[in-house]
Input
Amino acid sequence: MKKFSWRGLSIIIFILVTAFYLAPLAIPNLPGWWSKHTLKLGLDLKGGMQILLEVDTSQLSAADARGAVEQNIKIIRERIDQFGVAEPTIQKLGEKRIMVQLPGVSDFEAAENLIKQTAMLEFRVVAQPDEAKRVLDSIDANVSANLDRFPALKKLEELDKAILPESDSLNQTTVAGVFSSLIRPGEMDQEIQFDSIRLIQDLLADSLFQQMVPAGWQLALERADAASPRSDRALHVLSSAVELSGGDLARAKVEYGSSTSTDPRVANKPYVSIEMKREGARKFERVTADNVGKRLAIVLDGVVYSAPNIQERIGGGRAQITGRFTSSEVNELAIVLNTGNLIAPIKPISTSIIGATLGSDSIRSGSMAGMIGLGIVMIFMALYYKLSGLITDFALIFNVGFILAILTAFGATLTLPGIAGIVLTIGMAVDANVLVFERIREELDAGKTPRSAVDAGYKRAGITVWDANITTLIAAAVLYQFGTGPVRGFALTLTIGIIGSMFCALVFVRSIFDTFVVTGTKKTFSV
Output
């Protein structure tokens, strides 16, 4: 009975694993469970976007600030995972910065908004019309009395005076209340014309203007309509008391209203259905019971998404966020609600867009460099070591395939530095064979038979091969541990390449020699 060979089994496994994970690259229309195993490309090869963010911890205590960046990274990762970006790279830089790389993303604006959105969800009662008028009149009087402290409004007043005659009644109204000139009454709320929206947004962000708002109230603009971005927007007067917050939210999901629904807000439209936690449901029931006939605004990051009328007490802790949403917008809203609000606000420092054309050029250049390097090494080995060199070339091709297969198997991402690691591995892969072949030549020159020379060559050169490759593995491990994205990609492919090259040199090529080259009492050996 033939003795069991672990070497033969390992070679079979090596070939099968390589073939399994490389097949989707070459064979179309494979079954779904098989074709899903494809090599992922990094940002520099596939294109996409890179965003550098900075976390604002100025309003946090020292203890909270230390964990804010890590917690924000976790939330950003959850949002991106739900957004559907494959293999994002999210890492901390320094004390307060976060680097986000999104390969393959096409909707850059949506991705950036999703990442930087604080997602501070609040439920606030909307002021009744008479209350809202008193608040706005008070703001108008305070602003008019301190007009010199608001340059933009002062300039608006001077422009009105220049355009209209002194006796014009409209001009007198505008001068008497320059803030109110930006507002016109709507059916339910005050409306801001599109041309004045930017000015209102600047005022709402102004701390001095906030001091002009009567205590117990605040102003908030309605969410912009994606279908009509230049349309007017409502200005809401809200109670400053937060009735419920995002902490009371259990889950949010996207739903689509039936076309037969009698509610025009949801009929045949997407909306977000939210469900409260147990304590949140109690709060929601109390708030709706105390404010029947009023409206409850759902505010996200200071913007009113919807303000439905409370017709009766609502139990069960369920509500809807409606509006003129697109499918992508409603999905993004559900994502930020489910992942929670950022611990501290973040601001983009820089955004880089890498187009698909640049990625294709990078792939082409990297592939060309790899093929040229592989070709030169193979030609050298075949000319210098003859048949043994050709066998090494055969194993070298398997080694490159093995690297790509293992990257695919573990879901790793191939980047330009990763291609550089493969090119370096090609040169290093034959190093072990060179050491062995030179030792075999010495043994043959000493008069040994091919079989004895091969055995002695592998035995005596094996220690040197292990030493050289282990030290390189240690260096690669250090690079992977302490490096960042591109450096880690280089270290990973280098590590896989070293393991593959050692296997090919000490097991694969040796098995071919023993099986086909130095069989029987053969007297010659081409090396």
Q: What stands out?
A: The radius of gyration is 34 Å. Confidence is low (pLDDT under 50) at residues 167-176. The longest helix spans residues 356-409.
